């Protein structure tokens, strides 16, 4: 259709949406690629007919991956974006009702971790003639509300497309949000069933190819000057490297900055693998699950330079880790993060801001005695023996398994875990051999992310042709919660190596329960109320039922051979390892603010509460 000099295409709203997505491009790894890598979808009556028709027509340009669970599809999309350093995006699409609400948790994971995912959920009929439709939740006082309003709390951009023309403004706005370094996070579009199928004359310009670039925000010159002046006065500076260093592709820039100015670097969990373990300025992970070395340095520092981190409580020890007199510089692309706890803000891209600071420091470097102190602390941490198990059966510990995988894996392998005890064991024991090779989902600490995230990361890893395996660490609790993407990985020939550590329940929460004076209850399977006997799950057999290869081992001596078989396998391989449920890596852990009962019949609970309360004396109160 033509009107005057303008050209139009008559398409349904769903067809126009998909066509616009396929027209978006971006430069990654030196070549132009589609901005959207694919769609994870489970079809239902809210997205199968109209959106499904459009996706089928575009399948050569925009592959559709059939998911097994809507929540896990969102996890896979988030892990895909993280593996690409936020430079490519996936879509997660569901029907109306339960399919949509299943994705809310995944949206929260993407939001907490500042990751771009486009969520598309079917919505109720805009004209309302058949209302209430199947799966519709009715609000008696507000007929405009659907369950999709729940996404407002966990997305950076939200809209409901109630007329096909709205797509022209809303879809580019959603994409711009997801690509903005400061506002980056998930976007949501609710797609009413009837509106998806309505045709409209869209301008051809809406479908023209557009090559996007990630904006690099240069810092304000006066903020650079102020930060440099403060750094030059420091006697004991330390840099905290967060996930933003990865997203800025600033790992090399930061390593060079630290070497030139002789400043120790510690990493957050999201910032792990910013530096290689062998880098002389890498002093380990910081915070509640951190190392003695990193936490001692942060406690003694007179200046903390926080680069690309949102300073979550596990990083700051609930703000007890730093000396009360220590000053903070917040180097972050997001003003909100840069200004936390009255930090001296340096708002800008990590790469550009570090370069600007480098020039402003003009040959300055930290005191050699401070670096010598840091090196001694690191040597003491690295020389400690790995925690060993204490069971009669000689079961291995988490730490022994992590160290074994670390020793046996390749330099290009990517490791993934989330929640539970494994993040702490990896942050304490993993020694990075390549940058950006670790994905520990701890922003939302979401059980179930591990295997689904592994699938999404594996898709990205094979697309980038970087080599290496995708290695997933998962506990038995998370496995029972969400395991169906083992089947996804087998169906799509995206092989994972899954290390399943079985300790009989939610062991790390049992540890917290016992450490606060409580009686073990409802965490280990054997401690569950109404449990007649703790019937063990045959995880290896369960994995085989989904097409994976698998085996079970009970000793560290047998692990090397099992891992070698997994590496050689032609498909997803699950190694079920029975592990000691009570042996954890100790030391290094910073204080963590938790709530304890003020009144209890158990003196042990009251004593634990007093201990927690004493830690609050060290807590910074916003300054």
Q: How would you state the average pLDDT, rounded?
A: 95
What is the CATH class of the largest domain? Alpha Beta
> How many H/I helical runs?
24
Annotated CATH homologous superfamily of the largest domain: Thiamin diphosphate (ThDP)-binding fold, Pyr/PP domains
- End-to-end separation: 62 Å
Write down the domain tally: 3
Radius of gyration: 25 Å
Instruction: Give start-end ranges of low-pLDDT stretches.
Output: none
**What is the topology, as strand order, of the major beta sheet?**
6-5-7-8-10-9
- Under the CATH scheme, the architecture of the largest domain is 3-Layer(aba) Sandwich
Briefly note the structural class of the backbone.
Answer: alpha/beta
CATH fold naming of the largest domain: Rossmann fold
Helix content: 25-40%
Name the overall outline: globular
Largest sheet descriptor: 6 strands, parallel
Strand elements, count:
24
């Amino acid at each position: 259709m033509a009107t005057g000099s303008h050209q139009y295409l008559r398409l349904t709203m769903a067809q126009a949406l998909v066509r616009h997505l396929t027209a978006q491009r971006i430069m990654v790894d030196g070549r132009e690629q589609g901005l959207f890598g694919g769609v994870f979808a489970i079809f239902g009556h809210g997205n199968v007919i109209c959106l499904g028709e459009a996706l089928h027509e575009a399948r050569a340009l925009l592959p559709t991956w059939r998911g097994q669970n809507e929540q896990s599809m969102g996890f896979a999309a988030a892990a895909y974006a993280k593996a690409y350093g936020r430079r490519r995006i996936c879509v997660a699409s569901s029907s109306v009702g339960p399919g949509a609400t299943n994705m809310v948790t995944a949206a929260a994971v993407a939001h907490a971790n500042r990751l771009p995912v486009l969520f598309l959920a079917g919505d109720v009929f805009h004209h309302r003639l058949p209302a209430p439709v199947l799966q519709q939740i009715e609000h008696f006082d507000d007929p405009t509300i659907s369950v999709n309003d729940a996404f407002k709390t966990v997305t950076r951009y939200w809209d409901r497309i109630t007329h096909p023309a709205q797509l022209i403004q809303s879809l580019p706005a959603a994409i711009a949000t997801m690509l903005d370094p400061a506002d980056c996070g998930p976007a949501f579009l609710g797609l009413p069933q009837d509106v998806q199928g309505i045709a409209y004359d869209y301008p051809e310009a809406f479908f023209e190819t557009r090559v996007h670039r990630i904006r690099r925000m240069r810092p304000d010159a006066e903020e650079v000057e102020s930060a440099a002046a403060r750094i030059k006065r420091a006697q004991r500076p330390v840099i905290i490297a967060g996930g933003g260093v990865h997203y800025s592709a600033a790992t090399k820039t930061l390593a060079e900055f630290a070497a030139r100015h002789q400043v120790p670097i510690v990493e957050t969990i999201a910032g792990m693998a910013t530096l290689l373990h062998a880098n002389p300025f890498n002093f380990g992970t910081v915070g509640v699950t951190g190392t003695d070395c990193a936490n001692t340095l942060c406690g003694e520092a007179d200046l903390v330079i926080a680069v690309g981190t949102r300073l979550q409580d596990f990083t700051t020890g609930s703000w007890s880790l730093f000396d009360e007199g220590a000053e903070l510089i917040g180097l972050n692309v997001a003003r909100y993060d840069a200004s936390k706890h009255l930090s001296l803000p340096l708002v800008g891209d990590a790469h550009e801001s570090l370069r600007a600071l480098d020039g402003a420091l003009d040959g300055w470097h930290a005191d050699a005695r401070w670096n010598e102190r840091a090196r001694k602390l690191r040597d003491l941490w690295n020389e400690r023996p790995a925690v060993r198990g204490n069971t009669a059966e000689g079961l291995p510990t988490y730490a022994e398994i992590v160290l074994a995988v670390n020793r046996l894996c390749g330099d290009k392998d990517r490791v993934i875990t989330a929640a539970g005890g494994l993040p702490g064991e990896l942050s304490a024991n993993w020694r990075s051999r390549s940058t950006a090779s670790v994905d520990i989902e701890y922003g939302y600490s979401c059980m179930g992310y591990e295997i689904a995230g592994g699938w999404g990361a594996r898709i990205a890893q094979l697309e980038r042709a970087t080599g290496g395996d995708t290695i997933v660490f998962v506990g038995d609790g998370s496995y029972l919660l969400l395991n169906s993407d083992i089947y996804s990985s087998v169906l799509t020939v995206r092989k994972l190596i899954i290390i399943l550590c079985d300790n009989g329940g939610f062991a790390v929460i049992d540890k917290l329960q016992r450490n606060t004076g409580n009686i073990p209850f409802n965490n280990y399977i054997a401690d569950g109320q109404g449990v007649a006997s703790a019937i063990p799950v045959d995880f290896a057999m369960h994995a085989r039922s989904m097409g994976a290869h698998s085996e079970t081992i009970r000793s560290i001596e047998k692990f090397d051979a099992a891992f070698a078989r997994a590496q050689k396998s032609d498909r997803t391989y699950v190694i079920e390892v029975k592990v000691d449920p009570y042996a954890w890596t100790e030391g290094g852990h910073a204080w963590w603010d938790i709530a304890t009962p003020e009144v209890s019949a158990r003196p042990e609970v009251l004593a634990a509460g007093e201990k927690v309360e004493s830690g609050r004396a060290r807590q910074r109160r916003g300054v």
